[in-house]
Amino acid sequence: MKTLSRRTFLSQSANAPAILPFLMPEFSSAVQGDEFSLNEVRLLQDMTDYQYKSLWGNLKGITEKEADWKPNPESNSVRWVVGHLCWFEEWMADAIENKGRYLTDKKPMSVQEPTMEAIRTRFDAARTRSTAVVKALAPEILSKKVVFVGRVEVPISNLFQTQVTHMSGHRYQVRYIRGTYSRVFKITNKADFDPW
């Protein structure tokens, strides 16, 4: 691993996948400009897979009541956050294929299902689909531009960087909401779903 200065890291961050703050691997094919290789995409997909599995570990034992609870009225519930992550997974695959939600959803959203189990089923299907779409990508597609949630044009490779950081960030949001619920109501034991 090569340690980068803060300035170098920040200047490269738009084009370099960060594994830990200010660290990144020395890839056999270095990222240059908007050029990404399928190896970098595979690494980012592996990182997303880890976050996905960890998310469901953090959701172990959640009840429907807890899934709907908000720390304050302006907050999102765990159900909304997980539905939002599922929405992004569906949106990203559609963006790569130029169809579906990509053509209609111009702002971030959350898909809703009647139960957390139903959200998991839908999210599992979305992950399976996005993984298949990514595995079928040709290298030249990675630099193709898409409009990110109706706002700014980015290369498709940027979606994979966003996917892993997005899932990681919202996973920590779920941990925060569930941890707060555990401390406030003393119904759940935080160590059961979040051993930290």
Write the element-wise H/E pattern from the N-terminal end onward: EHEHHHHHEEHH
Oligomer: single chain
- Morphology call: elongated
Integer average pLDDT: 86
Q: Give the total of beta strands.
A: 4
Discrete helix count: 8
Task: Determine and state the CATH class of the domain at 74-196.
Answer: Mainly Alpha
- Strand residue content: 5-15%
Secondary structure category: mainly alpha
Q: C-alpha Rg, in Å?
A: 18 Å
Instruction: Give the strand order, joined by hyphens, for the main sheet.
Output: 1-2
* Low-pLDDT ranges: 13-34
Main sheet? Answer: 2 strands, antiparallel
Q: Which bin fits the share of residues in helices? A: 55-70%
* CATH homologous superfamily placement of the domain at 74-196: dinb family like domain
CATH domain topology of the domain at 74-196: Four Helix Bundle (Hemerythrin (Met), subunit A)
What CATH architecture label of the domain at 74-196 applies? Up-down Bundle
How far apart are the termini? 26 Å
Organism: Spirosoma profusum
Domain DinB-like: 52-173
Protein name: DinB family protein
InterPro entries: DinB-like, DinB/YfiT-like, TAT_signal
